[in-house]
């Protein structure tokens, strides 16, 4: 019996211009690493002809879940989404789903700034304010020492993304590859995951 080396390719890439071409290139990089990459589009045949709306979105969610169930692991883009500090929330859910299945994960990003630094840059660009040392009374500090003007902790010190998302990747035995070239970052993550699959 051949080992399953099929991996789920996730991220905000499905929303980017030229998404199909991006996934084609990622699949080629997977083949170079000895993996078979599956993009969300691979399970969505016929969905593109349906009208936008709740029923169509639920069909996409089911198709993506079914793809994840078939895969031995996942490679996730952790780039900030829509100019915010945080990654695509749908991808974060997929990380949690595959982690709960005990599958090995890998991540990659072109933005290696620490997560609190991303939060600070977002707050400055969106609200013209800055982070401050944690001053909110009776608030835990453990995962970070800075808060925003609303008193919300800028957490996940030492990580490039939210601690739960990056943490699940690391707890699966994986790493988050950082490179300013998107495809090089992906290739590093793919090689990491390939080493951990049978």
From TrEMBL:
SUPFAM superfamilies: N-(deoxy)ribosyltransferase-like. GO terms for biological process: deoxyribonucleoside monophosphate catabolic process. The keyword DNA-binding does not apply. The keyword Transferase applies. It holds the Pfam family Nuc_deoxyrib_tr. PANTHER family: 2'-DEOXYNUCLEOSIDE 5'-PHOSPHATE N-HYDROLASE 1. This is Nucleoside 2-deoxyribosyltransferase. It comes from Gluconacetobacter liquefaciens. The lineage of its organism: Bacteria, Pseudomonadati, Pseudomonadota, Alphaproteobacteria, Acetobacterales.
């Amino acid at each position: 019996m051949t080992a399953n080396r099929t991996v789920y390719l996730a991220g905000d890439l499905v929303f980017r211009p030229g998404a199909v071409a991006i996934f084609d290139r990622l699949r080629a990089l997977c083949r170079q690493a000895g993996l078979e990459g599956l993009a969300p589009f691979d399970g969505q045949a016929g969905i593109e002809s349906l009208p936008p709306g709740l029923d169509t979105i639920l069909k996409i969610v089911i198709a993506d879940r079914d793809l994840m169930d078939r895969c031995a692991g996942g490679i996730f883009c952790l780039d900030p989404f829509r100019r915010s500090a945080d990654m695509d929330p749908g991808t974060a859910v997929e990380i949690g789903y595959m982690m709960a299945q005990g599958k090995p994960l890998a991540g990659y990003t072109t933005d290696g700034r620490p997560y609190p630094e991303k939060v600070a840059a977002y707050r400055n660009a969106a609200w013209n304010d800055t982070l401050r040392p944690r001053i909110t009374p009776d608030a835990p500090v453990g995962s970070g020492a800075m808060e925003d003007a609303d008193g919300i902790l800028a957490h996940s010190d030492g990580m490039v993304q939210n601690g739960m998302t990056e943490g699940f990747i690391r707890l699966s035995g994986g790493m988050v590859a950082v490179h300013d070239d998107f495809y090089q970052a992906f290739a590093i993550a793919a090689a990491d995951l390939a080493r951990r699959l049978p």
